[in-house]
Amino acid sequence: MASRLVLLLAAAAVAVAFLPAPASAVAWMVGDDGGWRAKFNQTGWADGKTFRVGDTLTFMYPKDNHTVIQVGKDDFAA
């Protein structure tokens, strides 16, 4: 009986050793070195990247060139 338990524990230890390591979250800077900019190609930047739950996206932009203001639907569409 004890040898079966030892064998079972050894098999479990071997199985755990071969499991892949859990994936770590990735911090992405949107636009890579160019940052977030006017006329930025979001879909082109995302091509070839795999995003997972837990990843973060950072939007870097020149503070002097951008403002955040509230606009209406028509202004946004324009």
Overview of this protein structure:
With 78 residues, the protein is mainly alpha-helical. The protein has 3 helices and 2 strands; from the N terminus they run H-E-H-E-H. It is 33% helix and 8% strand. Helix 2 links the parallel strand 1 (27-29) and strand 2 (56-58). The longest helix has 16 residues, at 2-17.
Kindly list the characteristics that best describe this protein.
3 helices; 33% helix; two-stranded parallel ribbon; mainly alpha; 78 residues
Blueprint of the fold:
Elements: H1 2-17, E1 27-29, H2 42-46, E2 56-58, H3 73-77
Parallel strand pairs: 1-2
Note the beta-strand portion. Answer: 5-15%
Percent helix range:
25-40%
- Structural class call reads mainly alpha
The total count of helices amounts to 3
What's the SSE pattern?
HEHEH
Low-pLDDT stretches are: none
Protein name: Phytocyanin domain-containing protein
Pfam families: Cu_bind_like
Keywords: Signal
Signal peptide: 1-25
